[in-house]
Structures are given as structure tokens and as C-alpha cells.
Amino acid sequence: MTEPDNPDLVVGDDGLARPAWAATDPLLREYYDTEWGMPVRDERGVFERLSLEAFQSGLSWATILRKRPAFRDAFSGFDPEMVAGFGDEDVARLLSNAAIVRNRAKILATIANARATLRLRETGNVAGGLAGLVWSYRPESTPRPHRLADIPTQSPQSAALSRELKRHGFRFVGPTTMHALMEAIGIIDTHLVGSHRLGTSGVWG
């Protein structure tokens, strides 16, 4: 059943309102209800989300979510130290793995990003390493969208984060991808007004 005053919200059989994209597919619904927009502040967690957002570029998030267990297995649980040590044999292994997205540029970028993550940690120039850097771009306020069309696809903060990550050697970290990352890990809250998830991250009042 659709929310009368907002066609972008759907009320489920549990009486809870969700955006249409999260209302029907059980996997997306579970992800929306339990993960999306909740704070992720640890290095491995942020590295995993950054990696998956890069793989998602040009694809649907549902595709990536269905493949996430295989991605975790293929990339050693997204442990940056393990992934940073991947060599040519690992690249060949990943390219032959039909359970993940077999894109050479994205695979190589993930390995390069793991190495960049370690450099951030080892130099100590960025407080909190990768997670600290990403969270340092939290804006002073968050959007409060009523409709899906109100949700921006990038922001000054995501553009600045993109530039800073690229300066540190990260790849596939454009402003739109970084904005999606910021939404996914709770740096901003773009749940629609009326959604049962709005404000549940605890980051924003």
C-alpha cells in the first residue's frame, strides 16, 4: 500500500513506511531496515563499503548485495592488510571468479585502495586512518528529503572527500560514489521524511 501523501513511500505489511526501492525485494528490505545509513566507523568496515560502492558503479546495488558474501570470501573479508598483499595470481583468481564482478580495473583499484589504506594508517598523518578521514567530511547538516528526487547525488563534502582520497592514491572514489558511501555508513541521513528509519542512526537528531 502506498503512503497517500508520498508516492515514493510504501507501507509494508508490518505497517512500516519505506522507500519504494526497499519495499519489495526481501534482501533490499532487510538491508534497508538493518544496515543502510547506520554508522560504520572501523577501518575494515569503511574499506569494505568503499570497495563495494566502487564495484557498484554502473550496476544496481541489489546485484552487489547478492554478491557480497562472495566478495567477502574473494577479498579475504576485506582485511586491508590481506588485500594489500594480493599479487598477479590473486588478480587472475578474482578475474576467474564468476561469483563476483569480474572487472579488472575495479579489482586493481580495490588492491590499490587497500595499500593506500595501510599508508594512511602507517604515516599517522590522518587521525583515525581511512575511517577518520572519511568521517571528517561529515557536513554541518544533513538533507531532509521528502521525495526520492530531493536526494542529491553528490555534495561539496563528497567532492572534497573524493579529491582528498585521490590525493592519497585511492581510485574509483568519484564524488557520486563518495556521496553514496556517506549515505550508506551514516555520515548523512537521506532517509525520506516519513520513513520508519529516519533518524535511527543516532548521528543526527
Descriptive account of the structure:
It comes from Actinomyces naeslundii. The mean pLDDT is 95. This protein has 205 residues and is mostly helical. The chain is built from 9 helices and 2 strands. It has helices spanning 26-34, 43-56, 61-74, 80-84, 88-95, 104-123, 129-135, 156-167, 175-184; strands spanning 9-11, 17-19. The two termini are 28 Å apart. Helix content is 48%, strand content 3%. Strands 1-2 form a two-stranded antiparallel sheet. Helix 2 (43-56) runs antiparallel to helix 6 and helix 2 crosses helix 7.
Helix content: 40-55%
Strand content: under 5%
Q: Runs with pLDDT <50, length 5+? A: none
Biggest beta-sheet profile: 2 strands, antiparallel
Sequence of secondary-structure elements: EEHHHHHHHHH
The end-to-end span amounts to 28 Å
Structural descriptors:
mainly alpha, two-stranded antiparallel ribbon, 205 residues, 2 strands, 9 helices
Short recap of the structure:
The chain is mainly α and 205 residues long. It has nine helices and two strands, in the order ββααααααααα. Strands 1-2 form a two-stranded antiparallel ribbon.
Secondary-structure blueprint:
Blueprint: E1 9-11, E2 17-19, H1 26-34, H2 43-56, H3 61-74, H4 80-84, H5 88-95, H6 104-123, H7 129-135, H8 156-167, H9 175-184
Antiparallel strand pairs: 1-2
